[in-house]
Design brief:
Elements (H helix, E strand, L loop, with lengths): L15 H14 L5 E2 L14 H11 L14 H12 L11 E4 L2 H10 L6 E6 L3 H11 L4 E6 L5 E2 L1 H10 L3 E7 L11 H14 L2 E5 L24 E6 L12 E6 L5 H15 L6 H12 L3 H23 L15 E5 L16 H11 L6 H13 L1 E2 L1 E2 L9 E5 L5 H19 L2
Parallel strand pairs: 1-11, 3-4, 3-6, 6-7, 7-8
Antiparallel strand pairs: 2-9, 4-5, 8-9, 10-13, 12-13
Helix pairs in contact: 2-9, 3-9, 4-5, 6-7, 10-13, 11-12
Length: 434
């Protein structure tokens, strides 16, 4: 083209969670049976939606109102229901005007970062979920600002590192957290959250809290919503139904704004987010409409508890197998349905490989991993995929220098889970000794 079309560096950004699907689908055509452990979609892994939930949606479809536009902020009755839920905990109090619905949290994330001026930076955890880092990089046209999650300490935040970034980077305007965390499965304690809120208060920052997994915790952990500790600090919480119901295909999420009027600059910022949504008129009406009835249904709590128990079981099976591999630094997952597993430093390199029986699969993978700049963990992930059909994601794709992989905990069959992770543990040893 006669001029450059994209900002420097952004044209090479990739979303590896989805990118590896393209490779896996090609391998399937060559006869490789794939176990999809790469993406957090319970439906793909066999989750069966209960009949009572489908009946609620079916009934709503028959109502003509669900076929039309709704208010830009979202369906009023649903926003009122969300306010009741949030306000009943006694923390930050909100009104329906403090809620805006989006077509999935990807839509919300794009607008949250896109409405900031390029100089304003959001400090993010490392590792961090790709959609957040790509959104922040895209608005700033610069590498992300990251504070470290400590793989040697249950993935807890390195508070000194966080404070250091805030102290020495005056362009930081906000701190982002994911609680429970993706990709690590770590759950922030109340003390951690209070300390982060204190940093925001002392430095006149706001907080972005991705809480889409807020009700998915196990192994005795408890989650504390950011609204319960935020006090007078401005904040945005991101929530949705894609993981919890689960209904990822609904593309339905929302933000809750806390203390939206406390700071004039923050008020203008939230208004700009709302204006951007007005440009699209509104988000999809149908999934918003059914949220109150589904959550209030007498079988909902038991259904969610049963799914959480399954994640807990798969988390502990995965931990038991991978925790026995000396080369790995494994932390038990206590929330969401992911586990991030780094290799101990220096163990991966670009000379290692593993036998791949399928000749076509071997040729495809070798062509991909021989390209310049392929990280050692991406090389590892692609070799494992071709050799075993186990599809995981390189950890380095989550904005971290750590080399490793992320898996999901969505397998429904306990025996299959044991097979997958016993195989993976065995093949890691073969790969490292090659």
């Amino acid at each position: 083209m006669r001029i450059e079309l994209v900002p420097p560096g952004t044209g090479e950004l990739t979303y590896e969670i989805r990118n590896i699907v393209n490779v896996a689908e090609k391998l399937q055509k060559h006869g490789v049976k794939v176990n999809w452990e790469n993406i957090g979609d319970p439906i793909v892994k066999g989750e069966v939606i209960p009949t009572w939930m489908k009946e609620i949606v079916a009934k709503a479809v028959m109502d003509n109102h669900t076929w039309g536009y709704c208010h830009t902020r979202g369906v009023l009755e649903t926003r009122e229901f969300i306010c009741e839920t949030t306000n009943s905990r006694g923390g930050a109090q909100i009104t329906p005007d403090d809620i805006i619905f989006f077509n999935g949290l990807g839509d919300a994330i794009a607008k949250i970062y896109g409405c900031l001026r390029p100089e304003a930076r959001v400090l993010m955890p490392s590792p961090s979920y790709t959609t957040h880092t790509l959104g922040e990089i895209g608005h700033a046209h610069s590498a992300p600002s990251l504070f470290r999650l400590k793989s040697e300490d249950k993935w807890h935040p390195d508070m000194e590192d966080l404070k250091h970034h805030v102290r020495y980077n005056p362009n930081i305007c906000a701190i982002m957290i994911i609680n429970p965390d993706n990709p690590t499965g770590m759950v922030y304690t109340k003390q951690m959250l209070e300390e982060i809120v204190a940093v925001a208060r002392e430095n006149n920052l706001f907080i972005i809290a991705d809480e889409v997994y807020i009700n998915i915790v196990y192994n005795g952990e408890k989650t504390v919503p950011i609204s319960d500790v935020i006090g007078d600090v401005p904040a945005i919480s991101l929530k949705g139904i894609s993981k919890e119901f689960p209904w990822p295909g609904s593309r339905c999420g929302w933000i809750e704004v806390y203390n939206g009027e406390r700071d004039e600059q923050f008020r203008k910022y939230v208004n700009l987010i709302l204006t951007g949504k007005m440009n699209e008129v509104c988000s999809t009406t149908l999934p918003q409409t059914v949220i109150p009835e589904i959550v209030r249904h007498p079988e909902y709590s038991a259904y969610l508890a049963q799914r959480i128990a399954s994640y807990e079981k798969m988390s502990n099976i995965t931990y038991d197998f991978l925790g026995k591999v000396p080369a790995l630094q494994v932390n038990r997952t206590n929330g969401a349905f992911y586990m991030a597993v780094p290799f101990k430093e220096g163990l991966l390199n670009n000379r290692q490989s593993i036998p791949i029986v399928n000749a076509e699969a071997k040729e495809l993978v070798n062509s991909l991993v021989s390209a310049p700049g392929v990280s050692p963990d991406k090389r590892f992930v692609y070799h494992i995929l071709a050799a075993t059909g186990i599809c995981v994601v390189p950890l380095s794709s989550f904005s971290t220098p750590l080399q490793g992989f992320r898996v999901t905990l969505l397998e429904k069959d306990e025996n299959e889970c044991r097979r997958i992770y016993s195989t993976l543990a065995e093949k890691i040893g073969e790969y490292l000794s090659s």
